[in-house]
Amino acid sequence: MTEAKSPASAEVPDLPTTSWAVLGMLSHADELSGYDLKKWADWSLQFFYWSPSFSQIYAELKRLEKHGYATSRTVLQDDGVRGKRMYAITASGRTAAAQWVNHAPVEAPVLKHSVMLRAWLGHLAEPDRLREILSEHIGYAERMRKLAEVDAEGADENPDWAYPGAVLRWCIRHYEAERDFAEALLADVDKLATKTAPKKSAKGKGRRAS
C-alpha cells in the first residue's frame, strides 16, 4: 500500500522565488491585472525584495498559468473595445504557495551592495567623490524609510494587510539602520581621509638653489 504524501512532502515545482512573489500577490485578491500587480509590488515588495518590470510580471504569470497555479480572462473596458486581462490564483496555486511559505528552506539573504563595494575600493576613489556617494546613499535610505512609513500607515487601515503591514514596519527599521550605518561609515571615511592625507613638507619653500 502506497503511503499518502504529507503536505510537507508534496511535490512542488522548483520555481524561482519571483514566481512565488507574484503568486503570493494574487492570493490577496479575487482578480488582479498586470498593472495591479506592478502597482502592488511598487507599493510593498520593492522595499525588501523586488521592483519588477511589466515584462517580468507577465513572464511569471505565464509560468504560473502553465503550472495551473493561475488562470486569466479578458475583461472588456468601458469603451467595449479594449480588453484587460485579469489573473486569479487557483486552488492548487494557493496550496502550492502555502507549501512554499511553510516548507521551503530558509535561505540566507543575498546582499549585493554596490555602494559598499565602491567604499571598499575607497583607495581608488577621490575623497570628495566618495563622500558624495555615501551622502547620496544616506539620502536614498531616508527617502525609502519615509515611503515605507507612508505605505505601512496605509496597510494599517486594511485588516487584510496585517502581515504586509508588519513587514513594512520591518522595512522602516531596516532603512533607518541603513541610513545610520552609512552615516557611521561616512565618519570613518572622513577619519581615514585625515590619516592618509599627504603631509606638506617644509622642503622646497623659497628660491631653489642654483
UniProtKB/TrEMBL annotation:
InterPro entries: Tscrpt_reg_PadR_N, WH-like_DNA-bd_sf, WH_DNA-bd_sf. Gene3D superfamilies: Winged helix-like DNA-binding domain superfamily/Winged helix DNA-binding domain. Pfam families: PadR. SUPFAM superfamilies: Winged helix' DNA-binding domain. Residues 22-98 form the Transcription regulator PadR N-terminal domain. It comes from the Bacteria. PANTHER family: TRANSCRIPTION REGULATOR, PADR-LIKE FAMILY, TRANSCRIPTIONAL REGULATOR YQJI. This is PadR family transcriptional regulator. It comes from Nocardia vinacea.
